[in-house]
Design brief:
The chain has a domain of 57 residues. Helix content is 24%, strand content 11%. The chain has 3 helices and 4 strands; from the N terminus they run βαββαβα. A two-stranded parallel sheet has the order 1-2. The chain has a two-stranded parallel sheet with strand order 3-4. Strand 3, helix 2 and strand 4 form a beta-alpha-beta unit. The protein is elongated. 14% of the residues are buried.
Length: 90
Amino acid sequence: MKKTMKTEEVIALIKQGVSVDDIVLSDLEEKRLNFRDALLLVENGFLVSKENILYKEKDIAYDADFDEVEWEGKLHEFEGPPIVKRYYRG
């Protein structure tokens, strides 16, 4: 049986190196996460919607190899294989 926990508790467990395989997030729909915490959850199999990510320009580092490139052609959405192992309770 899966254990239900709050997002902050799960993030703390991940940072401590604890497995979160049997955990379901109870409050992710109401949370706005910084991109680092969102990425940490995604890397550990949780689905995080872009609406739940709080974007702050000051948190984004300048990268000349990426930012100074002149992009050509049409950009499109990438649709890769699903990697989500579990879903939040909704």
